Amino acid sequence: MDLLDKIISLCDKKGITISRLEKETGLANGSIKKWRKAYPSADRLLRVAEYFNVSIDFLLRRTENPNIVADEGIPAEAREEYNNFVEYLKVKYKKE
């Protein structure tokens, strides 16, 4: 299952169309279907992950766990820096 298949599956579970997902996340009409051949930018992928409340790793098939696990594989001394970076990305890409 590739990225697009994951997103289609999440849409099906939520009872929405890809078109509606694009509209609600501020993405251009038809842009998500292009992700079968080319990966989206980090900000676009983050919008979709946040919409479904899943991790980017889940969308990219790095894990089967859809839950956002902030400290997975991150040393304890780096967790605060990691969390700060995640918050920075959320703020940065909501401005667009």
What percent of residues adopt helix (DSSP H or I)?
40-55%
CATH architecture: Orthogonal Bundle
CA radius of gyration is: 14 Å
Count of extended strands: 0
Instruction: Give the overall silhouette.
Output: globular
CATH T-level topology: 434 Repressor (Amino-terminal Domain)
**Coarse structural class:** mainly alpha
Keywords:
mainly alpha; 5 helices; 96 residues
Explain the overall architecture.
With 96 residues, this protein is mainly alpha-helical. It has one domain: 434 Repressor (Amino-terminal Domain). Helix content is 53%, strand content 0%. It has five helices and no strands. It has helices at 3-14, 18-25, 42-52, 56-59, 79-94. The radius of gyration is 14 Å and the shape is globular.
Write the layout of secondary structure elements.
Elements: H1 3-14, H2 18-25, H3 42-52, H4 56-59, H5 79-94
